[in-house]
Amino acid sequence: MAIENRATWARLKVGILAIFAMIILAVLIFLITGQTNIFEHQVMIYTYMADAAALTTGAPVNLDGIPIGKVSTIRLSGSKDPMRLVRIDMELPAHTLRDIPSDSLASISSANVLGTKYINIKSGKSTMTVGPDQEIPSVNTGQIQDLVEQGFGVMNSLQDTVQRVDKIVGLVENGQGSIGKLLVDETLYNNLLAILAQVKALADTLNSDKGTLGILLNNHELYDNFVATLNRADTMLQQLQAGQGTAGKFLKDPAVYNEIQDTVKGVHLLVDNLNAGKGTAGQLLTSEDLSNQLKATVAKIDSIIDKVNSGQGTIGQLLVNQQLYDNLNGATRQMHLLMQDFRANPKKFLRIKLSIF
Predict the structure, then answer these.
(1) How many Å apart are CA 116 and CA 195, to the nearest integer?
(2) Which of 68, 133, 165, 243 could disulfide-link to 252, CB 3.0 to 4.6 Å?
(3) pLDDT at position 130 over 80
(4) 8 Å CB contact between 48 and 86
C-alpha cells in the first residue's frame, strides 16, 4: 500500500513538473515571437470618428508608422455629433504614452486602396502627453472614403482602357487596319522588302564610283579640283586684300576712290547745270522758246511731208506721178547710153574744126 502511494505521488510530481515546463516554454515562445510584453501594464486610449471605414477589431495601431498597439473595441458612441458617431478604443503599452503628445491626431489609414485598415497616430508638437483613458483627436475619415472611391474610379477607367487595348490587339491580329496589314499581309511585307533592297542597292551605288552621286562621293579627283578651286579663290582674296590688280587697286588705292568721287561730283554738277537751264542741253530741257521752235519746225516738216504725200511739188510729183518717174527713168537710161558711147569713142565727141578766114 505504501509502495502504491509513493508511486502515485511520484507520477503526480512528474505531471506537475511537466505542466510547469510547458507553461515556461509557452511563455518563452510568446516572449520571443510576440510584440506584447505580458509583464508590462496595458492602458487604454480612445478616439471618435465619423465612420469606421471598414476598420476591424485587432487592427494595428501605429505611431508615425511604427506599430505600438492594437484596436480593442469599435462601437457606436451614441453621440449626435456627425464627427463623433463611432468610438474606437485602443490598447497600448503604458510606456508608449510618453511618446504621444496631447495634440496628436489619429486617422484610419490603409497600405493601399484595397489593403487592411489600421489606426495611425500622427505625433503633434505639444510638450504634454496623453494619459491613460484619455481621448486623442482624430482626422475626418471622409477623406479616406473619397480616396477609396477615387481608387475604384481609377480601376474602372483602367479596366475600360484594358478592354480597348484588347480590342485593338484583336483587330491587329485579324489583319485589320494599317498595323494589322503590316503584320499579317505578306504583300505589304514583300513590298517593304523590295524597298529595303532598293535602298541597299542605292547605298551600294553611292559607295561605288558609279553615277553622279557615287563619283561625287568617291572620286578624289573631283575633291582635289574642289580644293584647288578653293585655293585659287583664297589666293585671289589675298591679292585683293594686298591691293594687286585692277580690283585690288579699286579696293585699296585711295587715288581710284578719289577719281570716282570727283567723277560723281562732276556728274552731279552736270545734272545741276541741266536742271538750271545752262548750256545747250540745259536750254533744250528747260527753255520754252526752244521747245516752241522745235514744235514749229516739226509742224513745218509734217506739212512738207503731207504735201509730198499729196503729190505737190517736184518731189511730190516724183513720188506719185508715174509718167514723171518714167520720163526721168528714160532720161537716166539715155544718159547712161551716152556715157557708154563716150567712153567707147571719145574722138567722136572731141573733134575740133579749125578754119581760117
Answers:
(1) 59
(2) 243
(3) yes
(4) yes
Cell of 206: 553611292
The model's pTM: 0.36
The helix or strand, by DSSP H or E, that contains position 234, with its residue range, turns out to be helix 220-242
Compute CA 208 distance to the chain's CA centroid, rounded to the nearest angstrom.
37
Residue type at 195?
A: I
Question: What pLDDT, on a 0 to 100 scale, did the predictor assign at position 144?
Answer: 54
Residue type for position 185: D
pLDDT at 76: 92
Distance CA 125, CA 238 (A): 83
On the 0-12 / 13-18 / 19+ scale of CB atoms within 10 A, 121 is: buried
Q: Is the pLDDT of residue 357 over 50?
A: no
Cα distances (angstroms) measured from residue 289 to each of 36, 112, 133, 298: 133, 110, 130, 14
Task: Kindly report the number of other CB atoms within 10 A of residue 168's CB atom.
Answer: 14
267 burial level (CB within 10 Å; 0-12, 13-18, 19+): exposed
Are 50 and 78 in contact, with CB atoms under 8 Å apart? no
How far, rounded to the nearest angstrom, does the alpha carbon of residue 329 sit from its chain's CA centroid?
A: 91
- Which DSSP symbol is given to 96? G
Tens digits of per-residue pLDDT, 199-253?
887 777 767 766 666 666 666 776 777 778 888 888 888 777 777 777 776 676 6
Span 271-307, pLDDT tens digits: 777 777 777 766 666 767 767 777 778 888 887 787 7
Mean per-residue pLDDT over the chain, rounded? 77
Cβ(244)–Cβ(251) under 8 Å? no
The domain locations on the chain are 1-34, 43-140, 219-252
Give yes or no for residue 318 having a pLDDT over 70. no
DSSP secondary structure code for residue 266 in this structure? H
122, 102 contact by CB (below 8 A): no
Count of beta carbons in the 10 Å neighbourhood of residue 135: 14
Q: Using CA atoms, how far apart are residues 77 and 333, in angstroms rounded to an integer?
A: 154
Of 147, 101, 150, which is closest to residue 124 (Cα–Cα)? Answer: 101
